[in-house]
Amino acid sequence: MPAPRPCLFLVGLFSSQLLAVPARAAVVESVACHVSYGGETRLLQARPVVSPYGVAVEKVGSYFLFRVVFQKEPADLAAIKVYVLAAKDSGPTPIHQVTHAYPPPLVAAAPWGFTGLNHVYEPFRDGELSYWCEWSGELRESRSEGQQQ
Question: What does UniProt give as the signal peptide span (predicted)?
Fold first, then answer.
């Protein structure tokens, strides 16, 4: 009779635990902003960043630039910031900026996410951009499990 192989048992146990990790790790916090301009709505995603300086702007139409900075750490800088800039010939010019607390408050049945519906106007080309953002991720799911409906 062959000797038991505890090594194979440990390998099997470890691999089953490792296979369970990606399913849990797949849920990552994110901010999804629904940005509308010129009759078109785009979904722009933002993931947590360590530094706000590397976050690029997204071009929306020919005049607007949209940027979301989602920073979780350090705790004293944790926030979700939304910027709208005008793409002028002289360079990008901020025309809207708002800072939201992190994590954003959970509001039952909020139709426009944690930001509410925002409208940003630019005077030169008479354009209007509207947006709203929602937050999703691991923290939200774990908090909502303990809430009573």
Answer: 1-25
With beta carbons less than 8 A apart as the criterion, state whether 29 and 135 touch: yes
Contact between 114 and 46 under an 8 Å Cβ cutoff? The reply is: no
pLDDT tens for 88-136 read 989 999 999 999 999 998 777 778 999 999 999 987 778 899 999 999 8
The pTM score is 0.73
CA 31, CA 61: separation in Å to the nearest integer? 21
106 within 8 A of 129, measured Cβ to Cβ: no
Interior CA angle at 42 toward 38 and 44, to 5°? 135
74 is a domain residue: yes
- Look at residue 4 and tell me if it is in a domain: no
Q: Say if 1 falls within a structural domain.
A: no
